[in-house]
Amino acid sequence: MVTMEQLQAFMRKSAEDDNARKYVNVSGATLEDALREASVELALPIKKIEYEVLERGSRGVLGVGKKPYLLVAYPMREKMEVSAAEDTLDMDFGFEPDAPQDLDGEALVRLTPDGVQLKVTPPQGNGEPVTERQALSAIAARTSNKPDLGMVSQIVKRADGEWVNIADFDYNPAQDSFISCDITEGEMKAFITLSAPGDGGSDPTAESIRAALESNGIIHGIDEQALGDLEDYPRYRDQILIAEGTRPVNGADARTVYNFRTENRQVQLQQSKDGRVDFKELNRIENVVEGQVLARLVPAERGTPGQTVTGRMIPAKDGKEIDPPIGENTRLSDDGKTIVAEINGLVKLVNNKVTVEPIYLVEGDVNVKEGNIRFLGTVIIKGSVEDGFSVSAAGDIEVMGSVGRSSLEAEGDVIVHQGIAGKGDGGVRAGGSIWSKFIENSEVEAGDMVVVSDGIINSTVFSDKRIICRGKRASIVGGHIRAAEEVDAKQLGSVAGMETLVEVGYDPKSRSRLLELEEKDGELAHELEELTLNMATIENMRKNKRQIPPDKLKHYAAMKARKEKIQASRQKLSKEIQAIHAYLEELKTSGRISVSGTVFPGVKITIKDAQLPVRREARAVTYIAEAGMVKVTKYEESEADISIKKRGGGDGDSTH
Question: I need a labelling partner for 519 at 20 to 30 A (CA). Which of 108, 186, 322, 628 fits?
Answer without folding.
Answer: 628
